[in-house]
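Quiz preparation item.
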């Protein structure tokens, strides 16, 4: 059986491209805002384009904040893409206005400090040792379109569960006027600032590796 993947349809995101890309790598994909379908799927993809505040409003309108929280609480995989990654952080700052994010990770998403913004085009990334998403892709380039990013990842101290430490998040970095977070793998929650669905063979391999992890 192919893994069942829901792409959350909340009005923001390159959803058709994401659906096609996931289907090409073997997922049984549904584009929907249905809460139960999103909760029951083997994997949930949260896309996102545009403004942080608008994406958060759209997510909350369909109960996406509750869906993500419930899935992660049950160890069910979630993949955020572009602004769908940014909203996983505590807050976003746009034009001096702060908007609460989903708060799955501490940290602030703010404007890139670069001479040319938006950052648009192909760029290399620096994956950490042990990355599953980017296994075999350290020398590849991925497609970015963004003006904002998380430029730090404050979750440095690894919490513990009883006597057993939880694994530290795996953070992938890229650079545009300074380092920024390009991807994170944190248990069931993974996310990319770049668009794997627009990143050719490298993006397809990343999505294939995520889908394979759902089996």
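Solution:
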């Amino acid at each position: 059986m192919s893994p069942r993947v829901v792409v959350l349809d909340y009005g923001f995101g390159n959803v058709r491209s994401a659906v096609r890309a996931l289907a090409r790598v073997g997922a049984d994909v549904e584009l929907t805002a249905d809460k139960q379908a999103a909760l029951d799927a083997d994997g949930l993809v949260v896309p996102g384009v545009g403004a942080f505040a608008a994406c958060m409003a759209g997510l909350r309108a369909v109960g996406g904040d509750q869906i993500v929280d419930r899935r992660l609480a049950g160890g069910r995989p979630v993949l955020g893409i572009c602004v769908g990654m940014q909203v996983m952080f505590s807050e976003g700052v746009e034009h001096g206005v702060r908007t609460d994010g989903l708060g799955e990770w501490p940290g602030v998403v703010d404007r890139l400090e670069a001479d040319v913004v938006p950052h648009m085009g192909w760029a290399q990334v620096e994956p950490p040792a042990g990355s599953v998403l980017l296994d075999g892709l350290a020398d590849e380039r991925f497609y970015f379109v963004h003006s904002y990013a998380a430029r730090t990842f404050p979750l440095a101290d690894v919490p513990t569960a009883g006597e057993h430490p939880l694994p530290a998040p795996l953070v992938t970095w890229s650079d545009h006027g300074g380092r920024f977070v390009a991807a994170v793998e944190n248990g069931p929650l993974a996310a990319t600032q770049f668009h794997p669905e627009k990143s050719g063979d490298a993006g397809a391999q990343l999505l294939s590796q995520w889908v394979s992890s759902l089996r």
